[in-house]
Amino acid sequence: MKRVLRADVQDMHGYAVQPSAGMVKVDTMENPFPLPPALRRALGERLAEVALNRYPAERIDELRAALARHARMPEGCDLMLGNGSDELISLLTLAADVPGNTILAPLPGFVMYAMSAKLQGLPFVGVPLTADFELDGPAMLAAIREHRPAIVWLAYPNNPTGSLWDDAAIEAIIEAAPGLVVMDEAYQPFAARDSLDRLRRHPHVLVMRTMSKFGLAGVRIGYLMGRTALVRELDKLRPPFNVSVLNCEAALFALEHVDEYERQAATIRAERARVFAALAAVPGVKVFPSEANMLLARVADPAAVFAGMKARKVLVKNVAGLHPLLAGCLRITIGTPEENTQMLAAFEAALKESQ
Ligand code: PMP
């Protein structure tokens, strides 16, 4: 058959989602809590009033302002919206401009940084974390000196490890980087620290967030904050009307009911501590501290434990094959208290079976 697509596209694997019907779904860091029925009805009424015949306009600016207030964005900054932060990763990669246009990130990390670079024909350099999933500061600085990256991605907390990086290491990276440094704060609702203050101090730093982990993964709203002049330039790359009127209205509604989401995030943080302690108490399991809504657990036979959990209708993510540092690791999203109890029972049973 005649080839009509780029060979590198044909060779690549797309972003895959595991089938999950009927399962306890703890594989993709979603917030497990639905909105209470009264709020769902109120949201339905709001969405019914949205003018679907019009392109998104003023309400989008209201959403940008509401997100800036919600995030406590510093003065002198602006905010750009994406159809999820995945779109922003792709747009930022388009804007890269330091000779060579290399994209650099610690590994293991979020797969879309490398995938966007590859799709746009840019070189990607991954710098391994240390064995306990800390940033390897000297190795990062050496890679920055060698490759002069146009963009350094720092997920903070990191996916899939849940780590928050050492402050001095981040500052040294920002000082050394010749291009942009993007702090990807997708998991900020569950973390003890954030990077907003770095926007005040460093003109080439951007902070990216999303409403996905907060409770709106299906709504697809990501946002990027940075110095106004920089964000205005980046905004030129955004496809017009990239956020739908329905998504915009749902996001505005969520921000009006932020207390509900903050209660949910607090429950998830408390459950993370409970699940951590329960996993850590199981002989033969190593669990790593996390500031995100997921935990990494290392076992002797991850494929067998994954399969045993799946047979018990609990879906986690087997990340063992993604990077040598992740050998033996399963990534487990924190669910509702009931789901976590079910997950722990399935984990222990599957582990025993695998031994
Ligand atoms: N950044 C990180 C670190 C992530 O883990 C994810 C999704 N898992 C994203 C960005 C993308 O989030 P979204 O496109 O839903 O905003």
From TrEMBL:
<feature type="domain" description="Aminotransferase class I/classII large">
    <location>
        <begin position="25"/>
        <end position="346"/>
    </location>
</feature>
<dbReference type="GO" id="GO:0004400">
    <property type="term" value="F:histidinol-phosphate transaminase activity"/>
</dbReference>
<dbReference type="InterPro" id="IPR015424">
    <property type="entry name" value="PyrdxlP-dep_Trfase"/>
</dbReference>
<feature type="modified residue" description="N6-(pyridoxal phosphate)lysine">
    <location>
        <position position="213"/>
    </location>
</feature>
<protein>
    <recommendedName>
        <fullName>Histidinol-phosphate aminotransferase</fullName>
        <ecNumber>2.6.1.9</ecNumber>
    </recommendedName>
</protein>
<dbReference type="InterPro" id="IPR005861">
    <property type="entry name" value="HisP_aminotrans"/>
</dbReference>
<comment type="subunit">
    <text>Homodimer.</text>
</comment>
<dbReference type="InterPro" id="IPR004839">
    <property type="entry name" value="Aminotransferase_I/II_large"/>
</dbReference>
<dbReference type="Pfam" id="PF00155">
    <property type="entry name" value="Aminotran_1_2"/>
</dbReference>
<comment type="similarity">
    <text>Belongs to the class-II pyridoxal-phosphate-dependent aminotransferase family. Histidinol-phosphate aminotransferase subfamily.</text>
</comment>
<dbReference type="InterPro" id="IPR015422">
    <property type="entry name" value="PyrdxlP-dep_Trfase_small"/>
</dbReference>
<keyword id="KW-0663">Pyridoxal phosphate</keyword>
<keyword id="KW-0028">Amino-acid biosynthesis</keyword>
<dbReference type="InterPro" id="IPR015421">
    <property type="entry name" value="PyrdxlP-dep_Trfase_major"/>
</dbReference>
<keyword id="KW-0368">Histidine biosynthesis</keyword>
<keyword id="KW-0032">Aminotransferase</keyword>
<comment type="pathway">
    <text>Amino-acid biosynthesis; L-histidine biosynthesis; L-histidine from 5-phospho-alpha-D-ribose 1-diphosphate: step 7/9.</text>
</comment>
<keyword id="KW-0808">Transferase</keyword>
